């Protein structure tokens, strides 16, 4: 008996023809994307025509005509928008580097404290994490900027650090470094680093051949101190300082003149970013240390290795493999979070470029795209680096 | 070096009765010194030179802890204490530092927060400024919660939230069959009800523009909407990313990596400034709607990665079993894969929800005033200048309570589902 | 004629309130092979872990090769260099190759030159028959191969005593034999060994003395033949009836 149903419906045709099943969704998706992009582009064109704006990047070389409060390189209103972008970018990198530095140190301390056998210490670390993790970063930033830093004294009664550095509500003043022959100093540092690499190589070879160990840490320390010092004595390098001095600007207003100024916006942003990201780094560190099984320490100990050797040769290599990927993710988050600068007027790339520059030129699409592209490039670059690193050090398994 | 300080030898168990009282004496001396110094301005050791005087309590405490550090004293409390906070000199020092810092700072802090603070009043003059002025928060509370929503219409917001909570509770209580309908209702019908209630314009309700929405209620509105929709979108993105069809796969990857690679502020700028350019000439999409869409897509990308982690963690055998039973792609995923994968990703999903709630204050850069934005506005009001601290502490406490409880709840969920496996 | 290489006198240990070792007295001579058996929780692992100070005893004396075990770190490190240990979970270092696992301690503790360390490591790996796996990583080896590598690693330090803490309990049945063979070879070579195990076949073949522990005490201690032929205590008889 032939019960087989000979009339095939559309869905049967669909199921039988596997090629169509494979390609149809893809073609549909492609059509959808193309349609969407076309729709947006068309609308954008119409809108821009109506407003008399054209699409283009020639604003890049135009004169910016606005000042930026804080800049690492020479800048004033006569420089181009392109240069303003650079200033913003450098400021973003600056606050990101400072934040990463402090967040890492603080995160390691707190992560290790969480594991301490001392009840008080581990509780304090736990409460730190719970408090700073559960409050929005923007709120913490506002607190530091509007509440904490505003409570600092006026320049007249500034907090005094050994008479060379002053902290007031207007900012942190530090001496300005004025170098002569700075390049010679840099060469000496590079030379020192190269010689340290040679020292370590030599020590390793010596250990392989004879088994004895050389005090490479002390020797390296000596090199990094002595070599740059020599440039001062005989290399013609010198360093002078310009100290901030209190001047009376008017009857009631005092301010510091000279020296270098770290604006409160930078301080508040760096503080908020560090304290917030440190909580996440602490959890990464804790997971890394816990991830190395107790048996590893025991096995290493039973072979006769000292505590320091166990930590250096057995525990840290394994812990770092667990710690580094999520920590790098946190570094990336910190860099993205630095964009909160826009809320407190720290001149980072968002405020300078996607804020002021965009308001002045009206070129929303170009500027926002460039800003987003900058962050995207950074993220993707770090992701690629991370993937390469992970593949290289992956613990080989079957 | 410590051995040299031993005037009477190392504390050992046999000399218990000598060392323990001595140790306790020194410890109490140290604490007394700190307390008297910090709160009563009495300096017990002022006859000592200034550097030693400053560290005197630390020295006393350290000496005291050293004397009670007996290895197997037999007294339970002492042994526990020693193993815990006094196991060696370094630990003892840290313990003392922490306790001293707490003693010096907690009482003044409590004073400022509670004992000297002003809670009752209606105007700035009634703030004595010795402690925190919570009158500020009291007076502005309605604004902090409801934004600039007209007072007479606030019941509409309350009603919407009550309905939501009611249906969620109902979702837990009804039998499994009806749960499906509750979810469909919440996802598709409730948004319309809420929209009409809160923005009005129909059914005889006065229209309230979205610019007037604000405060904590706006935080919740945005969070709940984004929460509801970023989850299914994220799920589709995750499945797309794992698909074998190259176009679907790469467009998913591109979409996800784009949203994950840029900061939320630039996304908000894009939504408020750039996006209107892409709409047909003359159409206007409400700013709040644009912002909610932007936030939803942003969080959906992170959600996609979390769900993808769960899909990857599932053993291949589950996929094989589903296929060998003749299940198609969608049926297999709906009935076998996703229910299991979702249990695995509960902590990640909860984390993303938490991040979403913590990200909502950013909308103040595009002019929408949720809780933090309202506090910003309040503290700049000429009648109420100078209360930034009280405002931010209030916001901090509110957010902390919400986020802390959310993370606790997700930890509980995770524990409950772990035992299933 | 044989020196006492391990002496344990009146050793007691507590974990908090719980007493895990009660008045342990044990003398081990050089080249002696001792098997320790007993139900779980009897304290057998704790016993041998006290010998290389992985656990600390609160009362009593432990003397290894003339050195007393106390808080003195130098003594502890000296003893650990002479006592090798093989763990139930192998505990190979996953980030190092098998060869590097074996040469790590000789290079850093005994300050052996790398080439020399590698040569002797390869010899040890050959003795346990995994020479071909030398450059591989622990994750790429089977359980039996990993445990044999762990034995070779411990032997590279040229210890006078080898402690085994249930070395075959975590292995699949077909791999137990290869590890036991390696241990038998080691025993025949004259090593002093203390082995905590349930493998009574191994005990019968190689052990000089068998110790039965229960609830923290040594219940019975006899030369191998007598232990299996005439167990004195009822608890021993019960235990033997359950595992044989």
State the helical fraction of chain C: 25-40%
State the CATH architecture of the domain at 81-135 and 265-393 in chain A. Orthogonal Bundle
What order do the helices and strands of chain C follow? EEEHEEHEHHHEHEHEEHH
Hey, roughly how much beta strand do the residues of chain A contain?
Answer: 5-15%
Biggest sheet character of chain C: 6 strands, mixed
Count up the helices of chain A. Answer: 13
SSE pattern of chain A = HHHHHEEEEHHEEEEHHHHHH
Please report the distance between the alpha carbons of the first and last residues of chain A.
54 Å
Overall residue-averaged pLDDT value of chain A: 85
Topology, please?
The complex is a heterotrimer of chains A (about 400), B (about 425) and C (about 240).
Chain A: H1 10-16, H2 18-51, H3 81-114, H4 119-133, H5 137-148, E1 159-161, E2 165-168, E3 171-174, E4 176-180, H6 182-210, H7 216-234, E5 238-242, E6 245-248, E7 254-257, E8 260-262, H8 264-291, H9 294-302, H10 307-337, H11 341-344, H12 349-361, H13 364-393
Helix pairs in contact in A: 3-4, 3-8, 3-12, 4-8, 5-8, 6-7, 8-10, 9-10, 10-13, 12-13
Chain B: H1 2-5, H2 16-40, H3 50-67, H4 76-85, H5 89-115, H6 135-146, H7 154-173, H8 176-199, H9 215-241, H10 246-261, H11 264-274, H12 287-313, H13 316-324, H14 329-344, H15 346-359, H16 371-380, H17 388-420
Helix pairs in contact in B: 2-3, 3-5, 6-9, 6-16, 7-8, 9-10, 9-12, 9-16, 10-12, 11-12, 12-14, 12-15, 13-14, 15-17, 16-17
Chain C: E1 4-15, E2 18-29, E3 33-37, H1 44-51, E4 59-64, E5 67-68, H2 73-82, E6 83-86, H3 98-108, H4 114-127, H5 143-155, E7 161-165, H6 173-188, E8 192-196, H7 200-206, E9 209-214, E10 217-223, H8 224-229, H9 234-243
Parallel strand pairs in C: 3-8, 3-9, 6-7, 7-8
Antiparallel strand pairs in C: 1-2, 1-4, 4-5, 9-10
Helix pairs in contact in C: 3-4, 3-5, 4-5, 5-6
Question: What would you note in describing this structure?
Answer:
The complex is a heterotrimer of chains A (398), B (421) and C (244). With 398 residues, chain A is an alpha+beta fold. Helix content of chain A is 67%, strand content 8%. In chain A, strands 1-2-3-8 form a 4-stranded antiparallel beta sheet. Chain A has a two-stranded antiparallel sheet with strand order 4-5. In chain A, strands 6-7 form a two-stranded antiparallel ribbon. In chain A, strand 1 and strand 2 form a beta hairpin. In chain A, helix 6 runs antiparallel to helix 7 and helix 9 runs antiparallel to helix 10. Chain A is globular. The two termini of chain A are 54 Å apart. In chain B, helix 11 packs across helix 12 and helix 12 packs across helix 14. The radius of gyration of chain B is 30 Å and the shape is extended. The longest helix of chain B is centred in the C-terminal third of the chain and has 33 residues. With 421 residues, chain B is an all-alpha fold. The two termini of chain B are 55 Å apart. Chain B contains 17 helices and no strands. Chain B folds into 2 domains: 114 residues, no CATH class; 228 residues, Orthogonal Bundle (MetI-like fold), CATH 1.10.3720. Chain C is α/β, with parallel strands linked by helices. Chain C has 9 helices and 10 strands. Chain C is 39% helix and 26% strand. In chain C, helix 3 crosses helix 4 and helix 4 packs across helix 5. Chain C has a 6-stranded mixed beta sheet, with helices on both faces. In chain C, strands 2-1-4-5 form a 4-stranded antiparallel beta sheet, covered by helices on one side. Chains in contact: A-B, A-C. Chains A and B meet through helix 2, helix 4, helix 5, helix 12 and helix 13 of A and helix 4, helix 5, helix 10, helix 11 and helix 15 of B.
